[in-house]
User: What shape does this take?
Amino acid sequence: VKVDGRRRGCSGEASTMMRGSFVLPLLIFYLVKVPTSGSFISSSTGFPLPPCKPPAACEPTRVLVRSIPACRGYRRLVPLGMLAVHARNEESSRRTRSYNHILQQCARERDHKKATEVLAAMAAAGIVWDVYTYNAVLNCFCHPSTHKFQVYPMELMGEMSAKAVRPNVITVNTALKYFVLRKDLDGAMKLVEDMQEEGIEPDLITYNILINICASSGRMETASELFERLQLKRLVPDSRTITTMIKGYGQLRELKRAEEVAARRPQDQSVQRTLAAQLIAEGKISRALSTLLNLFELDEPPTSASSPPSASSSCLLNVQLVQKKPLKPSEMEVATLNTLLLAYREQKDLDKSLDLLGYAQKHNLVVDEVTFNTLIDTCGLAGRADLVRGAISAYMGEDQPVDGACEVGGSDSSKRHPAEEILLAFAHQLAAASERFQQLHESNVCKMYTSLIRGLGRQAGADARHRLAGALEEYKEKSGRAPDATMLTATMDAVVNQGDAEEAKSFFEQVLPSLRASDVSVVNAYMKVLSQEQDMSRLQEFLSLIENSGIRPDVVTFNTALHICCEMNNTQGASEVLDMMEKKRVKRDLTTYNTLLLRCAKNKNVKEATRLLDCMQSDGIRPNDLSYSLMCDVSGKVGDVARAKEMFMQVSDDAPQEIKQNCYSALVRGYSVNGQIEEALKLAAAASRTGIALPESGWLSILDAYANIGATAKVMKIVEDIRAAGGVIGPQHWSLVIKSMCMQEDSKGAYAIMKQHIKHADLVCYNTLIRASVRAGDSDTLILILRDIEQQGLVPDEHTSRALSQSGKSAGLLKVSSLLRMFDANFKKRLLSVVE
Assistant: This one.
C-alpha cells in the first residue's frame, strides 16, 4: 500500500484480517476500474472518491491504513475517501459494541427500565442496531422468567430481515425462549425450520431448548426424536440435555427410560442427582440412595447405607455398580449431599442424616443453608424437638445448654448422636454467615420453627396443644413476624394428627381471618378432619365458608372433597364438586381421576371407568400403576378377564407389591365370577411362585365361587389351608361356608356354624339363612333365625322380604304369619310390612 509516495508492507495483523469481513469490499474496489475523478494520494492508478469528506488529519489515516486488510500480491492504491468511510464505520461499530455490552448487562439483571433508556440513547445518537443489539433486546424483553413478553420475537426478527441484518444461531436460541413458558412446541419448531431454510443450523443449545419445551408439555416421544437427531448431527448431549430428558420422563413416571438416559453419563453428579430426585418424588427412596452413593468411593460409608437395587432395576444401577473409577468423597458436590439428605428426610431417618453430616465434615465437603434446613426438618419429622430447639438456641446466639433443651423433647442426652454437636456448630456458622442478609436470616428462623412444630406434633401428652401454641408465640416474639402458611399448616397437621377434632376446629377458626387467598394449604390440612367425619352437610358448609373467605381452593382441596363424597358413595355430591372445579377453572390431576376410578371400582361401573381413562389420556395425564390397578379391579368384578389382563400388562415391573397383589386379586375375582375356579387357583399359584401372596380378597373370591355351587368340602379345605399358612379366619370366611351349606339347603348346619364362629352376624348372613330355611321348609330353624334378628335389633330390609317370599308355596306351608305371633309387636310390624 502506498502512503505519501512510500510503500508500506503488510503487517501480520493486516494479513490475518484479510480473512475478515472487510475483504469483499476491498476486492470490489481493487478489481473495478473507472475513470479517475477527485484527489488521490498517487496518480498512477485511481478510483473515484465516494461522496464523503476526507479526514482532517493524516496521522489517524496513517494508523488506520495499517489495520485495513491487504494482501502481498496486490499493490493497489487505497482511496482517501474509503479510509474516511472505514474510520466512521469503525467508530460507529465501536459505539454500537459499547451499547451492546450495556444491553447485555441489563438482560442479565432483568433491568427493563435501564434497557429502555439505553435504546432511547442509541436512537438519539443515531446508532444503527447490529445482530448483537437485536440479540440483547431479545434476551432482555423476551425472557420467560419475566412472565411479561414486552416484545414479540417474530416481529423483531421480521424487522431484522427488513433492515438486512442477518440473524445468527444466538438470535434463534434467544427467540426460542419466548416459546418455553408458553410450551408452544409447534411455534418453536416452525422458527427453527425457517432459520434452517435461511442457512442457520441449530446447535446444541437449540436442541436443549426444544427438548425442554417437549419435556414440560409431556411430549417425550418428540423429545426422544430430537435427542436422536442431535446425535446424528454429531452433537454430543451435555448435562443439561440429559437432565431435561430425565425430568420429562419423570413427569410421565417413566422411570425406566429416565434411568436409561441417565446411564449415558454415569459419573455426572448433576445427572444422577436429577434422577435421584425423580425417584424420591415417586417414593423409590432406596433406589435414589443407591443411585447417588454408588457414585463415590466411600471408605467409611454412612451407617445403614442404601440397600442393593432390586432385580427389576434398570441398567443404570448396574452401570453404577461396576464403575471402575468412582469419584472421591471430596468430590461430592453440595447439591448431591443435599439430595442424599432429602432422601433420608423422606425416610425420617435422622441417624443416617447425622452420619452423612459427620462424613461431610471429615472430608471437608461444602455445606450450605439448604443442608442445614434439611437436617433440621429431618429432626422435626423424627420427633426430635429437643435437637431442633438446641439448633434454634445456637442459631439465635442464646446461652441455653443443649442438655436443658433436651428436657423439652424428653430425649436422653446420653444417647445423643456424635454429629449433633456438628449440627449445633453448623447453626452458629450459618447464623454468622446470614447476618448480612436479613431475608435469608428470616427464612432460616421460620424454617427452624416450622421443624420445631413438626417435632412437637409427634409427641404425645395432654399439654401437646399448649406446647404448639407456645412455639408459635415464641416465634412471633423472636422474629417480630406472624407465622406464615407453612408454619400454620404444620401446626394444623400436628393438631389433626393428635385426633382432637374440636381442637382442630377451634384452631382453624382462630387463624381463618388472618389467612390470605393463597394460604390454601392450611385449609387442606384441616380438611383431613372432615375426611374422618364423612359428613356431607359439614363438607358443603365448609366449602361455602372457604369461598366466602376469599381463599382460592386448589386441586388438593377439591380432591379431598371428592374423596369424601366417594367414600360416602354420594354420586350427587361428587358431581357438585366436579362442577365447582370446572367453575373455578381448576384442572383435574392424576389424583382426581384415580379417586373417580376408585368410585367406579366400588360400584362395578366399567363403562364410566373406561370413559374416565380416555378423558385422562385426552387431558394429557398419563395413568400410573394405581390407575391401571383400579381399572383391573373394576374389570375383574364384572368378569371381564380379558380387559383385566390388558390393564395388568400396563402395570410397571417396579410397581409396589400392594399394587401387584390387587391386580392378581382382580384377575382371580374375574375368573371366579365366570365360574373358572381352576383358572383362578392356577393364577394364585403363579402369583405365589413370583413371591406375591394373594391377598384376602382374592381367596374370598375363590371361596365365593365354590360357595355359589355348594362345594362345601372345597370351601372348608381352602379355609383350613389359609389357617395352616398362618392366616386369620374371620366372619367373611365363615359367611361363605354358611352360604355354601345353604346352597345345599343345610340350614341347620349353616345356623350352627354361624352361632359357633360368628359372634355378631349381619343381616346379609341372616337373609341367606332365611332363604335356605324357606327353600328347605325348615320352620324350626327359621324361628330361631327370626328370634336372633329380633334380639340383635336388626331391621328387616327388602332382601329379607325376598328371602321370605321367594318360594311362594314353601312360604305358605310355613305359615309365616302365624309364626310372627311369637315375636315382639314392633318386630312383627316391621317384618309384616316387608312380607306384605
User: Anything to note?
Assistant: The two ends are 124 Å apart (CA to CA).
